[in-house]
Amino acid sequence: MEIIILTNEEAVAKRSADLVEAQIRTFPDTILGLATGSSPLGLYKELVVRHQKHSLSFDQVRTFNLDEYVGIPADHSQSYRTFMNENLFDDLNIDKANTHVPDGTMENPMDAGPVFEKKIAEAGGIDLQVLGIGTDGHIGFNEPTSSIRSRTRLKTLTKQTVEDNSRFFEPGEFQPKLAITMGIGTILETRRILLIATGENKAEAVHDMIEGPIAAICPASALQMHERVTVILDEAAAKNLKYQDYYRHVSEIQDELVKKHRPSDWIAR
Ligand code: F6R
After folding, report:
1. Cα–chain-centroid distance for residue 81?
2. What is the pLDDT of residues 220-240, one digit of tens each?
3. Which among 67, 127, 208, 234 is annotated as catalytic?
4. SS3 of 255, please?
5. Which atom of ligand 1 is nearest the CA belonging to 139?
6. CA 84 to ligand 1 centroid distance, Å
7. pLDDT one-digit tens code per residue, 20-61
8. For ligand 1, what atom is nearest to the CA of residue 196?
9. Cα of 198 vs its chain's centroid, Å
10. Cα torsion at 44, 46, 50, 52 (round to 10°)?
11. How much is the pTM?
12. Residue 238 CB contacts under 8 Å (≥ 6 apart), including other chains
């Protein structure tokens, strides 16, 4: 794993956007894997700015989102489709037909996973996957003890996740307890991964992911088995890392190389 520790959230957003921008400028028909939640919001804002002010074009880009709730319509205010439209797609020149979110409205929700996997395969696989991490180490909706080889499938949310998200739903309103999520095995097949984590509440999960053993109890630790993962952290999220000095040292040396050779060595495909 490549670990980049930056001073604050703004720097994290900018560096993440540099990497995504380099990928899209090199391969305008890039296939992106995307996440919802607060972690990628700064990145998404930056991408919108670069599209509007610096002609970064998304007209050939295709996207696949990690997850979606089951049982609410796509146009519900809390669906992940709505989140993506409002926080990214509506402000880009992307064709919405090229943006894919798992279908949480199928009559048999167990069919949604295989359908989504087929779409990813038909597109030729994901070039660059953006991830956040939960405080318990989850990625997508792969909660602790999820199988490391799991595929896109129906998952029952933990009581904690349901409780955490209850603030977004009106009292008495139906709140999903199920979701469709890419599996850990699906995520491990993407060609390049960019994981973003900020804030002290992520410090323990970030430590377990990078320096702990590979274990189903911390789903993100499975990323140690992926060849090309870049983790971008702010100082608060990095605070429990034992080898912080080493990661900073590597970054300094890498930065020299970057000036000479990048972005070509970063690009996935
Ligand atoms: C969302 C997703 C989740 C989040 C994670 C962190 O699509 O895949 O795994 O990345 O729950 O959420 P935030 O970023 O809100 O802290």
Report:
1. 15
2. 999 999 999 999 999 999 999
3. 67
4. helix
5. 9
6. 13
7. 999 999 999 999 999 999 999 999 999 999 999 999 999 999
8. 14
9. 13
10. 70
11. 0.95
12. 3, 5, 203, 206, 244, 247
